[in-house]
Design a protein that fits this description.
Oligomer: single chain
Number of strands: 3
Distance between the termini: 54 Å
Order of helices and strands: HHHEEEHHHHHHH
Strand content: 5-15%
Radius of gyration: 21 Å
Strand order of the largest sheet: 1-3-2
Length: 233
Amino acid sequence: MLTKEDIVQALKKYDSIKYSEEFYAYYLEKISRAFEPNDQLKDCVRYLILWFLGKVTKERPDSFIERVYVNEKKFFILKTTPNNEKAIESACDNINLWAALSFKNNHLPFNNFIQYADTITKNSIVLPSFYVHMFKPDEYPILNGKVWKVYIELMNKNVYINTKPAFWSHYHQYVNFCHYLEETLNLSLREIDKGLWVLGDELKNKARENEKNLIDNQYVIEGIFDEIKEQET
């Protein structure tokens, strides 16, 4: 099981250049004060989704599509895929934003709100669950393939490169897991978020190496069988 020291050590490796905490907290705070789906709220949602996708950086890149200032600090917005842009457009739809604000203000239950979140993309629950997180970050942690791999390994299950959350029931499991860590380790949900993100990165690299070794071993075994067949003929 994870220890507090595991998370604390992982936090030291968090990529604050690619995933700026200041940028994230700035727009999250603006969303917390929003009361209607105006252009300001749409900008907040757009920038946070781009941040989540790794498309916001402090360091000036060779090319960027927009420059944003947060607390007088400069950030650069990178281009994302057409599918991601479509998801952002859906997230900023007025109907979805009204539902999100109702959810934020405890007027719309979680199980009703996810029907709106689901319209963002049908390919995964990762972006829809981040939409949930944006409006209730103190209750719902960030879910992605990296942190899900950590959870799966801690459940003593095999982890592969394509191990990903697929259903809202998976998100429920992960939310309960994070709140358990929050209580037992005496850490904030955000600290757990960031620590698991780092550990998930390391686990992803480990899974990639393991699968590479399996493929290499398969080629070796196939080569041995080919040699045996040649000898028999």
